[in-house]
Amino acid sequence: MDSLKHLNRYTRDYKGTIFLGALFLTGANFFLIWIPVLIRRTMDEVELLGEEYTTDFQSVFEILFSSEAGAILALNSLLLIGTVLLYGILLFATRQTLIVSSRKIEFDIRNRIIDKLLTLPQRYFASNKSGEIYVRATEDVSRVREYFGPVFMYTINTITRAGFIITMMIIVNPRLTFWALLPLPFLSLFAYWVSGFINKYQLIIQEQYSDVAERAQETFSGIRLFKAFNRIDHEQTRFEEQSDLYRKKKLKLDMVESLFHPTLNLLIGVSIVVVIWQGGIMVIEGLITVGNIAEFVIYVAYLTWPVASLGYTVNTFQKSLASWERIEKVLSEPVDIRDREAALTGEEMKGEIVFKDVSFKYPGSEDYALKNVNLTIKPGSNVAFVGRTGAGKTTLINLIPRLFDINEGELMIDGHDVKEWRLSSLRRQIGYVPQETFLFSTSIKENIAFGVEEATMQEIEDAADSAQVLENILDFEKKFETIVGERGITLSGGQKQRTAIARALIKDPKIVIFDDSLSAVDTKTEDAILSHLKSQLSDKTTIMISHRISTVKNADIIFYVEDGSIVEKGSHSQLLEKEGRYSKMYQKQLLEQEIAQI
Amino acid sequence: MDSKAVDSVLIRRLYYFFEPYKWWALLAIGLTLSAAFLGTVRPKLTQIAVDDYMAVGDYEGLFFIIALLGLALVGEFIVLVANTYITRWFGQGALFRLRNAVFEKIQSLHVQFFDKNPIGRLITRTTSDIEALSELLSDGVVNMIGDLFRIFFILSFMLAMSWELTIISILVLPILFYSTFWFKGKVRVEFLNVRDQIARLNSFVQEHINGMSVVQLFNREEKQKNKFEAINRDHRKAHIKTIFYFSIFWPVVEVLASIAMALVVWYGGARALMDQVTFGVLLAFIQYVRQFFNPIRGLSEKYNTLQSALASSERIFDVLDTANEVPEPKNPVQIENKRGEIEFKNVWFRYNQDEELILKDVSFKAEPGELLAIVGATGAGKTTIINLLLRFYDIDKGSIIVDQNDIRNVSLEELRSYFGLVLQDNALFSGTIHDNITLGNKHITREDVIRASKEVESHKFIKKLPGGYDFVLRERGASLSMGQRQLICFVRAMVYDPKVLILDEATSSVDSETEELVAKACKRMMKGRTSIVIAHRLSTIQDADRILVMHKGQIRENGPHRQLIRKDDGIYRKLYELQYKDQAITA
């Protein structure tokens, strides 16, 4: 129950409003019970008046508008309408306080989660499915909201309404109350059972639903094979089997659901019939009036929904709590990459990088992704990493901006352990162009200026120019205001990469990292970018990963990475002389070019 | 066309899927009618109980009426349960038929359809689009009819007791209609806004989970947090606005129902004083007024779901109406003498009209029993040749001939049964090895499978797996090595004993252990059949009778290895050297 306590802390800012809402709801229910009371009173008074009056009335209007009886009727009816209006207004106020608060709390919780996610290290995102994390910040929060909204409201409603009504009923006649209430506990239990069953069964159906989708997925993605082997009919049978299972499981749920409303109806109906039966006997015996029966019938009707909602509420509460527990796990996740006290600020960073016996394993993995890496990158130098996919190049450079922390060895920048630098300063000094270009669905301008506090239009244009993407951008109708992504324009792979390069360059960093960032750019543009960079980046440390010899051949040092270790290093010409892996790679690319040119 | 006409066409087409259940549907309507009657007769019975028995103190009569009430109640219960279940049952039946029909249609369509439509969209058509019809097809329509019956019965009972009170009690209806109308309008706008805000919020979350490293590398945590708060605030605002309309609407409905009751008591009270209306009638009216509101509200809600269901049925019928661009021949010819001779005659082809040509005037011939290899750089058009041979696509110009017959004159099934196909991606599925080999064909026995797998040198390794041929593959065979997966695909092709073997060699490297097995298996497979091999590893095709070198959609060189390797400037020779380098790096 600790987690429930934590959850309830979110009500702190809204305690007053929630209390007020509870008060409004109690008030609403207080006025609600006057409706049956007034109806009974009118009927009773009419009965009495009927015995007194012996004169015949000419028309109904005579009674309504000119007699003493008419005045009583009018008074009662106006009272009735008055209480109903009060009830309605209070109900409005209840929803405006309770439900609105629940939305505000939802807002707070969601902000907390995003806030937390923004500080969590890459380790967390690498070891959790992005879909799962997504659900935490979206669906789970919505479910927790139901606890503060409907669950709160229905619970208060059930308690106060049932309290008032049962009190009134007992005042009128305890025995009839007993008979009227007899079926209601069953109603609650039944609703609890049904909503529990529905929750449980919906999961089963959800699974079956994915099975159906999976069959479609497998068949459609292997369609050539199935067509080639003439297995279309068989795939149809397999799909129909799953489809039929889905139907059958759905029908099982339907069976319970089709019991729900009729049973609700039956139990309420039984309650009313029992009231008429037992009440009828009491009327004949003169213990109560017909007005009392009308009153009870309405009471029972008013109790239906609160009593039935009790079962639903309990289940919703359980679901909210389960969602909250999952959210709490995210919120309590340790942030293990953060600043030490008295961290170094980076204004004077020169950009020397030293790896000393660095080894690294991804969390949850047995194997080393990097083994005993030793290398020195001098400030202002230009180095490149080459090697096959999966050799560990990206892993290696990800350690520099501390996307991950190393397990063994030392990683130094300007002679200081990378952990001694203030994280924001460290990253401020690194211009990183990731392998998979990720742009946000905002304007190109915002994407380029992403990492700087305030950029002038001139700076943005300069960065775009250095990355050779300025012309493309100016070709768009909305220029720098063009929206990127699904809702806007789809950039080509090369345009995206160059935009990401501009985003890194505008920071004017000390260290520039290109992780295979020119792969989708043609060689001519690549040349232009590289020569541009050479003049601009002369005082900056430049690190490049590439599969293309043309990109890396001018680097001061080229490192060949294989299975997490550096196996060859040297300049282009030195490596060619060695006739090792690098030179084979080079010759292969030469041949490929030749073939392409035929 | 106006929307009414479209709707009626859609409804008629949907009816087809109900066809087998039409008598059940009629029964359901009958049950609904009786449930509506049994539900609405009860206040009338209370009126009789009050006026005829309580008023005169007739215990026996009271008990009789109570018994009738109980019967009506239990009767309604039974009828309602049966009715709901029956409608759900045939609704699920119709959905089942519809889902299967959509799946069948999609499967039967030409391969290009799958190129043009992302798999995700096709899955949506077979699953969630059908689900969207669920409410309409299960109890939506029947419930609407039930609501109409209820309104009819309530009005009849009320009119039979007192027409004046009836008019008094429905006085508030225009206000109810108006406020429902107002509410629906407001809420629809707000719901659209809420939906947009949810989408905005969700895509922000999604995007930032995926791009978290960029956010952190660029020190944007604080800014993105503020940005999210703004989006989150809009989301909250949209919800709070809908809450506002809901918190007006529900109280208004309650207030109206109570006002109707107040009016009944006021006017009815006066009539009671004149002895023109009894207490029983008053009691019955109080109940009817409450009952009356439900079906009216229900009708307006269901009308909306009906509209949205029709919208998604349009998407489904779009798929069902798609024409197959690779049609079966009208009068398929039977191929008498199956020898396995294949010929491409001046074939021109492109995937899309506005794209460049993939094959330009390609002609070649493979004699029965010959081994023909096709090589070339990526994108040269090699795989396209296989796609055309199996008639996954139809060619633009020229002809493809199998044993003297144009493939467009042969039934697709007969044509495809000619070929044993091994695809590049070595597609395996979750399921046993046996099922992966037979693809569920019950006519292939375990003996057939073992014989075929012995032929391609796979029996030994399969036997060593736990469970042997019943070993269950997970995640598309991730537990097997590349080479093993390829061998299983070989067995799959061989088990049909095809006339022509088509092998699109895997690009990914095979471990040296199985490499030898694969090479041996290849040789045995090709013995005695026409084979067309798209080779990525040139070592496998050195004994090919003929090698076709494809380059940019054309056949540039044609001949056996010995001959092609001698051409100094030849493409084949270059490719060969390239391969040699590649292998040197791997080693």
Compact summary:
Helices cover 65% and strands 10% of the residues of chain A. By secondary structure, chain A is an alpha/beta fold. Among the domains of chain A are: 174-287; 350-429 and 510-598, Rossmann fold; 439-508, Rossmann fold.
What's the count of strands of chain B? 12
Task: Identify the CATH homologous superfamily of the largest domain in chain B.
Answer: P-loop containing nucleotide triphosphate hydrolases
Beta-strand level of the residues of chain A, as a percent range?
A: 5-15%
Strands of the biggest beta sheet of chain A: in what spatial order? 6-7-8-3-9-10
CATH class of the largest domain in chain B: Alpha Beta
Number of strands of chain A: 10
What fraction, in percent, of the residue positions of chain B are helical?
55-70%
Largest sheet of chain A: 6 strands, mixed
Overview features:
heterodimer; A: 598 residues; alpha/beta; Rossmann fold; 6-stranded mixed β-sheet; 4-stranded antiparallel β-sheet; 23 helices; 10 strands; B: 587 residues; ABC transporter transmembrane region fold; 3 domains; 64% helix; 10% strand
Task: List strands and helices in order, with pairings.
The complex is a heterodimer of chains A (598) and B (587).
Chain A: H1 2-8, H2 15-32, H3 34-52, H4 60-66, H5 68-119, H6 122-127, H7 130-137, H8 139-172, H9 174-181, H10 184-221, H11 223-228, H12 232-284, H13 290-331, E1 353-361, E2 368-377, E3 382-386, H14 393-398, E4 408-413, E5 416-417, H15 423-428, E6 430-433, H16 444-448, H17 457-466, H18 470-475, H19 493-505, E7 511-515, H20 523-536, E8 541-545, H21 549-552, E9 557-562, E10 565-570, H22 572-578, H23 581-597
Parallel strand pairs in A: 3-8, 3-9, 6-7, 7-8
Antiparallel strand pairs in A: 1-2, 1-4, 4-5, 9-10
Helix pairs in contact in A: 2-5, 2-8, 3-5, 3-13, 4-5, 5-8, 8-9, 8-13, 9-12, 10-12, 10-13, 12-13, 17-19, 22-23
Chain B: H1 3-18, H2 22-54, H3 59-108, H4 111-116, H5 119-126, H6 128-132, H7 134-161, H8 163-169, H9 173-210, H10 212-217, H11 221-273, H12 279-320, E1 342-349, E2 359-366, E3 371-375, H13 382-389, E4 397-402, E5 405-406, H14 412-416, E6 419-422, E7 431-432, H15 433-438, H16 446-455, H17 459-464, E8 472-473, H18 482-494, E9 500-504, H19 512-526, E10 530-534, E11 546-551, E12 554-559, H20 561-566, H21 571-586
Parallel strand pairs in B: 3-10, 3-11, 6-9, 9-10
Antiparallel strand pairs in B: 1-2, 1-4, 4-5, 7-8, 11-12
